[in-house]
Amino acid sequence: MSGPAVVCALVAAVLFAVLPVVPFTGAPALAAEKPTVTLSKSQAGTGGSITVTGSGWRSEALLMILICGQAEPSRGVPGGTDSCANADGRAVTADDKGDFSRKLPVAEPPVPCPCVVHVATITGEKAEAFAVFQVAGHSVEPLPQEATGGRLSVLTDTRLNGSSGLLTWFGAPPARELVFTVGNVGSSPVEDPVFQVGTSHGVFAPQWQEYQWNGTIQPGRKARITLPVELAAGAHGDYSVSLTYGGKVLAEQPWGVGRPWGVTLFWLMLCVVVPAALFRIGMAVVDRVRPTRTTPPRRGGRRLTELAFRLPLLGTSNGAHSRTTPSANASTTPTLPWFTPDTDPGATATGPVSAPQHPQEGHPATPTTPTTPTTETGQTTETGQTTETGQTTETSQTTETSQTIETSQTSRTRKGSA
């Protein structure tokens, strides 16, 4: 065999050995990069159901299946999830090989057809697929003209700027700024572009808000754009922020929101303070409403009190007391200067008077003469005044009167003898 023939044979052998290998290794790679969706029916009416089968998805990926209107596989869903029957959507998880099969109830989307069955990942890397579907009896309208000219593309990774303050710790709405850089990869300028920013939590659909950026991006130029992002009051957990322009998702950014522990602390304090305040108020009301208890005075004490109020009146109103008082005072005075010790009437009286005598004419009784019996009578009177019963008081007053009369008669007799 000549040299050229040997070379041709070797080249042919290499070609036959390589050609079968290229399709075998390239086909799985293509299948893994682009997931697919197939339907059991291409048309069904409201109330029926279809079976959606998928393959080529990421292993154990969480997917959402929706019927959307005003959409085509080539253009996607320009209106986003607002054009889909979200209430009748179904979630499914792919198996280890990336395949799934799920029944989907047929429902009319909020916008006219053409319609598609839209399957997209909920978490992780963004991936989606479409399958044409017709809802029987639902209206059909042509799609709006696709905007020509400039096209925007995100050139850098998006980020969220900002931090939570003290008010956010007590339940205020968390807020951030979504910062990204876009470039115009089209042939015409883009003026005042309108972006949609959506926030989603878990498996729930995003809630979209539109923001218009004022400015013009020339072809081949780029611009740095900042858009506000705000959640509901008290929001916490893992959120996802999505950015779309012209119906296409440009970027997604995760956002972890801390729990507002200040709200929990507030409720704990409220559970402690309110019962304590109610208890104090209740005790104050009970103290005002409850009748006061009065302890009745002792019987003996009340009688002594009444007697103490009566004694001054008895001393001032009775004439016997007024006559007795000077006699008591005189017993403590020394001998009068006009009497000598030998002629002192009090000194000559050595014994008690035998019997009372009537006063003579021209010699009136002198109740103020100091005598020993008068002093004793005054003492007896004081004893009678401290007695509890009124009967004893009257007896002492009678005794005092008789003793006073007796004393005055004795004084007159002694003066006559002198």
TrEMBL record:
The chain crosses the membrane at residues 265-286. It comes from Streptomyces capitiformicae. Residues 315-418 are annotated as: Disordered. This is Neocarzinostatin family protein. Keywords: Membrane, Transmembrane, Transmembrane helix. The keyword rRNA-binding does not apply. InterPro entries: Neocarzinostatin-like. Residues 324-335, 366-410 have a biased composition (Low complexity). Coiled coil: none annotated.
